Amino acid sequence: MDQAPARTARQVLALLLAVNLLNYVDRQILSALLPAIQRDLALSDAQAGSLASAFMVVYMLAALPIGYVADRWGRPFWIRFGLGLWSLATAASGLARGFAGIFAARAAVGIGESCYGAVSPAFVAEHFPPERRGRILAYFSLAIPVGSALGYILGGALGQAWGWRHAFFAVGLPGLALMLLCLRLKEPARAPGPAQEEKPSPAAAVRSYVSLFRVPSFAYVTLAGAAMTFTLGGFAIWMPTFFHRRWGLSLSEAGTLFGGVTVAAGALGSLAGGWLADWALRRTSRAYFLVSGLGFVAGLPLIAVALALPGLRPAAAAIFLAEFFLFLNMGPINAVIVAVTDLRSHSMAFAANILVIHALGDAFSPTLMGAASDLWGGGQAGLTKALLAGSTPLALAALFCFLGMRHYDADSRRTSHV
Fold it and tell me: What is the CATH number of domain 1-129+146-183?
């Protein structure tokens, strides 16, 4: 397959990076607006928490059928459809008059973002040559820390100035303008592959997904992502509370501090990881797994140091360094998925990855860390122990990366992925 012209490739990256930023803004804005929503709609804590679950469960489960269909019948439609759906659903959240309305709207956001998440990383990667994909997917992954932070910041600012309903309108409607720009997207030339050999059916879909996990590199990179997501998902919820309990920061101060550290470390780590992996790729074909694994090895002890340090500033600095190393994998892990799965199965591969990393990762880790904190006495001491225990899966993430290295060359040679 010929790569897209350089100018077209850059335009696709710029457009879909902008869409991905909006993706994470619309995903995270709920957290910033939740106190006002609870007050106005008289929601219990359980109902409020279920709004996040509505998004995540639907997001995970919708990815599988969407990825299967998109690989067979074209991906630009699903990018546009997903963007339009989640944008309208985000805006519709501002119209909700009760729990059922906002629950349904957040579930619809999950469907829309699942369309995009299953399709867009490989679609972007295929516009660039293999030796540049680590950096390109690192640029694309910048949306995770930056968009998430913007969701918190914009949600707080717009909610304070205009109210939570208008905040949803303000961040939802721009997606419709981006959807119009996405009308120009075209499927890059793709060679015929195994994904087209069976007539689409539920049984064929199951066989296709099962076959992905028979590729050792894909299985290991997915398990590594799940272990990382378990830790980072739990920390995203509990670290502001840790800062509040440990050093007496207000909830606003704690959230701002952790959000600022995360966006800076995440952006720098993602860019550095993509550049470093592509540089190392000239020396070893296993560079994507190697850089990711070493990042996990470096990040784990830094978390332990941050939790033990007696001062706020050195602890924040240690958290910054830990997150910098943990975000090195953002581009390389996605590049592995593209490299070791067949060209006609890329969307399915990302859909399967989405399901597993969240089902085994952040779908339950915040609850488990909270329960562990209670078990160990609660307060600062209990939460510190829970966070330390919750960081240990990073050792598994590193192990899975190093195990995956052994299979990468053979797996990448067997696929049609250029």
Answer: 1.20.1250.20
